[in-house]
Specification:
Length: 266
């Protein structure tokens, strides 16, 4: 665990694996933290990769900046972190909001991106209804705390059959959500509502991309992952069976096989 100043936020992050290994940065989703990547970190470092897993500002152990935190701010934090680590180019991967931050990184810092890994995410800008929902959810989290929200969405984050069938995973996901600072979550929700359309930059991308999706994801269904895959000229699609929105948690072995196979081909 290391503190490192990103844009203007000291990010806490893990830096595992050989220093001369090909670098991979993994970006968690909302409202989680870097520990969600533990199965992937173990598999990647065992295969010789260097893995950087940060807590985004406002999440995990990284400090909170209340108000509005744009995805651009979060992408700039990560670019600054990689710069301070002396990493000129990395595979940039993320799940859900983390995938959108990976896309934002490709938009703002294209030279940093060797390849993209986009799990259960969408390049489409927020609708007006979606913007209103995120802003209202931000206020709700500040008023109620994280626990009611965590209970409400657990069977959407994980496929319902995995909530009951994988109690340890469900407990881990729930604990991450409840531990998140509401101020940090609210700031990111407000910023995420303002995200741009990433489709133009992705359509012109020349680097490889792995698109992953849980077969039973209700937030970003398979049809959306197929559209993302079709948009990108150098992408491959992996549908992870028996998984919802967090296939890296729900089916880590299948997720890791797809990820390692993709990385081996770079």
């Amino acid at each position: 665990m290391n503190p490192q100043f990103g844009n203007d936020a000291p990010l806490i992050f893990d830096d595992f694996g050989p220093r001369d290994g090909a670098p991979v940065i993994l970006i968690h989703g909302h409202p989680f933290n870097r520990t969600m990547w533990a199965p992937q970190t173990a598999a990647l470092t065992a295969a010789g990769y260097r893995v950087i897993a940060p807590d985004l500002r406002g999440y995990g152990e990284s400090p909170v900046r209340p108000g509005v935190v744009l995805l651009a701010d979060l992408a700039d934090d990560l670019a600054a972190l990689l710069g301070r680590l002396g990493i000129e180019q990395a595979v940039v991967g993320g799940v859900s909001m983390g995938g959108q931050i990976a896309m934002e990184t490709r938009l703002r810092h294209p030279g940093l991106v060797r390849a993209l890994v986009l799990s259960d995410t969408s390049p489409v800008p927020e609708s007006e209804d979606g913007k209103q929902f995120r802003r209202e959810l931000a206020e709700r989290l500040l008023a109620e705390g994280m626990a009611p929200y965590a209970e409400e969405v657990i069977d959407k984050m994980l496929a319902p059959y995995n909530v009951s069938g994988m109690p340890e995973a469900a407990a881990r996901v729930g604990a991450m959500m409840r531990a998140t600072d509401p101020e940090g979550a609210a700031a990111a929700l407000r910023g995420r509502a303002e995200r741009p359309d990433y489709r133009p930059v992705l359509a012109g991308a020349t680097e490889p991309c792995l698109v992953l999706v849980g077969a039973d994801d209700v937030y970003t269904p398979v049809v959306e992952a197929e559209a993302l895959h079709a948009l990108m000229p150098h992408s491959v699609l992996a549908v992870i069976e028996r998984a919802g929105h967090l296939p890296g948690v729900e089916q880590p072995e299948a997720f890791n096989r797809a990820l390692l196979g993709f990385l081996a081909g770079l």
